[in-house]
Design brief:
Elements lengths: L5 H13 L39 H13 L4 H11 L3 H8 L3 H8 L4 H8 L14 H9 L14 E2 L4 E2 L2 H7 E2 L7 H7 L2 E3 L6 E4 H10 L4 E2 L2 E2 L4 H56 L10 H4 L12 H45 L9 H5 L2 H8 L13 H5 L1 H21 L17 E3 L11 H4 L17 H13 L10 E3 L1 H13 L9 H7 L2 E4 L9 E5 H6 L14 E3 L2 H14 L8 E4 L8 E2 H12 L9 E2 L14 E3 L1
Antiparallel strand pairs: 1-2, 3-5, 4-5, 6-7, 8-9, 10-11, 10-12, 11-16, 13-14, 13-15
Length: about 650
């Protein structure tokens, strides 16, 4: 026996691993006697002169020379080489695809122990089923190629059919129920699998066709003779075999799912280690502030990958990453500067609103800051220039003109909202005493026009809501929303008509002897009638009385929801004076910190109601007519302007 160098033996084994090409073969099928070898296609002869200067790699040469010597190795030595190398089933498949010689050896029945030993290295993999050989099982579990067209990266495995199919052949080979087989055969003997969304259960066309051919011997005049003893034996054998396959398929499906989860966890951990290593090195270079919570950096292809970071890799990626962070830093500084200017502009506009008359209608901050005069100051001013409140003087002077056009546009929007319930609504209907709106976000408080245009509920910002920002203008609006924590008016279509308050208001206006179709809210405010709810009044509790505004907005203390027709009565002068005294007593407990303004001074500064009472007494000697001498800004809802309903004995 000729001697062989141990060093050369290791080199040959190493070349076996390196030279695994991608000449994909069909499924590894093991015969009873041996392995069928697929003949290699003949190649066109090339003139020797044309190959001059072409140098073959060592792995290519080893792949050509190795098969001739592979058969000379004793099988136990080959097995020992594989054992020491801890080759996986996929490694064996790749080796079998390198040449005919290696394939012939690995596919022989005598090499089955090598596959079994390789399979033992895979944790949790179910044992070899009786209907598959070792190479077939390895090909099913680990090779990612379609078993029909050899397309790569196929992840759909139909375990019960022992096949892996791409979408193209999966559609052709598996159908919902279009088959001529009887239901008993279809549901009992045909492998099935469900679509990824579990909508339909699909059946194998090939298996249905094969069973249909086998059933020919059990048919008479086209009818299946199910009482035939031979058929019953055949049916039982087929059913038991499929049940065994399905049981094994369920184990494989669980193993594959766990393997996928484990692989994802490994990749996630590897990406995390690479990210931490990159962050550590960039932090040492002074880029800490621009890395964290930046999706552009975290998801960058050089960062978000599972490959371990080495000194050589870091040397290659340091430049591109530093360049990216420099760009992110510049963008961050620009964004921070714009946000600071936006906040400054918002403060200037708030001061302007505070200095305006309480009844003056002014748009929300976000609508104003998106106008061109403000945008020019915020975005077009040089970054190094420091802005002050005086920088927005020209922009503030344009607010009055913008407010007129803004109000006109919003009135048209409200009319469209009204026409959803009142098809014939016109602009004059906005001012009726029976027209109330509400916001679907919070609170569900009925609001009249024009309070609905400036109430905070109409500009409530939902930070977790869906945002569609495909255009640059939309991006600007969304960024400003986050900065101000305020949305544009009715940005989410939250404003709608309040039908319940409208119904209550119609009965109240009629109780005052007025026509609800023409009476305006301003006329009702001028009268400010006090009414008694006859449905809620009784001898035990007394008379439930309130102002007309409370009657329409249905305060918590007035929960009248009588199935009958609402019934109201206007109070006489004596009863109204009793109500005024009660209101004065409750004034200290009704929204004491709500801002209001002094009518006597004409001062537009807002102060809490508790402070306003002291101001009226100290400055104007007024102690009893508090409500008549204060005015609330438009953005204060009616529920915060008046005391709740009271009981009079």
């Amino acid at each position: 026996m000729s001697r062989r160098s141990a060093r050369l033996s290791r080199k040959v084994a190493k070349d076996m691993l390196i030279s695994g090409g991608y000449n994909e073969l069909r499924d590894a099928v093991e015969d009873e006697e041996g392995t069928e070898v697929v003949p290699r296609k003949k190649r066109r002869k090339v003139n020797a002169k044309s190959t001059t200067g072409i140098i073959k790699s060592s792995s290519f040469v080893a792949a050509e020379e190795f098969p001739s010597s592979f058969g000379d190795f004793p099988l136990d030595i080959v097995a020992e080489i594989f054992r020491v190398g801890r080759l996986s089933p996929m490694d064996l498949l790749n080796l079998a695809r390198t040449s005919k010689g290696i394939r012939g050896t690995l596919m022989s029945r005598s090499s089955a122990f090598m596959w079994k030993q390789s399979r033992s290295h895979i944790e949790g993999l179910p044992d070899l089923p009786r209907d598959l050989s070792e190479p077939q099982y390895a090909n099913l579990c680990f090779s990612t190629h379609c078993h029909e067209c050899l397309a790569g990266r196929v992840l759909t495995i139909i375990w019960s059919a022992r096949t892996r199919l791409c979408n193209k052949f999966g559609t052709h080979k598996w159908v919902a129920s279009r088959t001529e087989l009887e239901s008993a055969l279809l549901w009992s003997l045909i492998p099935t699998h469900r679509e990824w969304d579990y909508r339909r259960e699909l059946f194998s066309v090939d298996e249905a066709r094969r069973l249909s051919e086998e059933c020919v011997v059990f048919r008479e005049d086209g009818e299946l003779q199910m009482s035939n003893p031979d058929y019953q034996v055949w049916f039982t054998q087929k059913k038991d075999a499929l049940e065994e396959i399905n049981a094994h398929a369920r184990l494989c499906a669980v193993w594959a799912a766990n393997r996928t989860i484990e692989r994802k966890d490994q990749l996630y951990e590897a990406r995390g280690l690479r990210y931490d290593a990159i962050v550590e090195r960039l932090t040492a270079l002074g880029w800490a502030e621009d890395m964290f919570h930046r999706p552009e950096f975290c998801s960058h292809k050089l960062v978000n990958q599972p490959k371990k970071l080495t000194d050589r890799i870091w040397k290659n990626i340091q430049g591109p990453l530093v360049e990216l962070l420099a760009e992110l830093k510049e963008r961050r500084e620009r964004v921070d500067a714009i946000k600071n200017r936006q906040r400054l502009a918002a403060r200037v506009y708030d001061q302007f609103r505070e200095a305006s008359p309480p009844g003056m209608l002014l748009p929300p901050r976000i609508d104003v800051l998106l106008t061109e005069p403000f945008r020019v100051v915020i975005e077009d001013t040089l970054a190094e220039e420091v802005l002050t409140e005086e920088s927005f003087a020209a922009a503030i002077s344009s607010v009055a003109e913008f407010s007129v056009g803004w109000r006109r546009r919003k009135e048209k929007e409200l009319i469209k909202i009204m026409r959803k319930n009142r098809p014939g609504a016109v602009q004059a209907d906005l001012h009726l005493a029976t027209t109330f709106f509400t916001c679907s976000i919070y609170p569900a408080e009925p609001l009249r026009f024009p309070a609905i245009l400036v109430h905070p509920s109409a500009t409530e910002f939902d930070e977790w809501g869906e945002v569609d920002s495909e255009e640059e203008d939309e991006d600007t609006r969304v960024d400003l929303q986050y900065t101000l924590q305020e949305a544009a008016w009715n940005a989410d279509d939250c404003v709608q008509l309040q039908e319940r308050a409208q119904r209550s208001a119609r009965f109240i206006v009629r109780a005052c002897g007025l026509d609800p179709d023409v009476t305006t809210g301003a006329e009702m405010d001028e009268i400010n009638p006090a009414l008694e709810c006859l449905n809620c009044s009784n001898k035990r509790d007394g008379h439930l009385v309130m102002r007309w505004t409370q009657a329409t907005i249905l305060q918590p203390n007035h929960v009248c929801d009588s199935p009958g027709i609402p019934s109201w009565r206007c109070l006489n002068p004596d009863e109204e004076r009793l109500l005024e005294n009660k209101e004065l007593q409750l004034l200290g407990t009704c929204s004491p910190e709500q801002a209001c303004c002094c009518k006597v001074c004409g001062d537009s500064r807002r102060v809490p109601l508790s402070t306003m009472k002291g101001h009226l007494l100290a400055e104007h000697g007024i102690s009893d007519k508090v409500l008549e001498n204060i005015v609330y800004p438009l953005d204060v809802g009616p529920a915060d302007q008046f005391p709740p309903p009271v009981r009079l004995k």
